[in-house]
Amino acid sequence: MKKIRLPLMMLLLAGAIACNKNDLQTDTTANVSAADAADMVGASLSVNSNGLASISNDVTIKSKWFMDYHLSCGATKSDTLTKTSPAGAPVTYSYGLGYTYTLNCNASNIPDNITGKVNFSGSHSGPHISSSSTGNLIFRVAGLTPTAPNYVLNATFNQSGLFISKKDTTNHGNENLSVVIQNLRFNKPVPTIAGGTATFTLNGTVPKKGAFSYAGTLVFNGDGTAKLTVNGSVFIINLITGEKTKG
How many other CB atoms are there within 10 angstroms of residue 69's CB atom? Predict the structure, then answer.
C-alpha cells in the first residue's frame, strides 16, 4: 500500500504546486484590466488631457485657416506651440506641439485636402491615469471644397510613454497606443465631430507583473462621446473629460 500511496500523494502535491504556480502567474500578468485599458484610451482621446480629440480638432481648424487665407497649392506651413491646462482644471496637462501642413489641390487646381504631421510631447494627470508621453498624428483632412458637407479626417495616432494608475499605483510602466482613424467627419463651419470609426492597439509592460496587450474599436457617435469596444467589453467615452461608463 505504501508503494501505491506515496506516488499518489506526490502526484497530488505536485498538482497542487502546479495549480498554485498557475494562479500566481495569472495574478502577476493580469495587471491591466479591460476597464483600465478603457481609462488609458479615454485619457489619450479626451480634450481635457489634450488628447486625440483635441489635436484632431486643431488640425481641422488649421485646415479651415488655410482655406480662409487662400494659400497657394502645394504651400507648406509649420507652427509650434505649448498648451497647458487652465488653472484649477480637474485634469492637468502640459504639452509642446509641432505642426506641419501642406495644401494639396485637385486636377482643376482647386484646394482639395491638407496633409501633415503633428509631433507632441508632455504629460497629463487625471482622476484615473497619469502619464508622460511622446507621439505624433499623421493626417489627411479632406472636404475643403465649398460643396463638401463635412471635413473628413483620416489619420494615424501614435503615443508611447510611461503611465501610472491612480487606482492601483503598483500598475505602472510603459505603454504604446496606436489609433487608426477612418473617415472622422467634422461639421461645418465650426468643426465638431459628426461621426467616424477607428481601431486601436494598446500594449506595454508593468514591472514584476509582465506584459499586457489589448485591441479594439472606436465608434464616434457625434454627440461628444465614442463607443469603445475592447475584449468584448463596451464602454462609452466622454470625449471632453475622458471618463467612461459601461455601454
Answer: 9
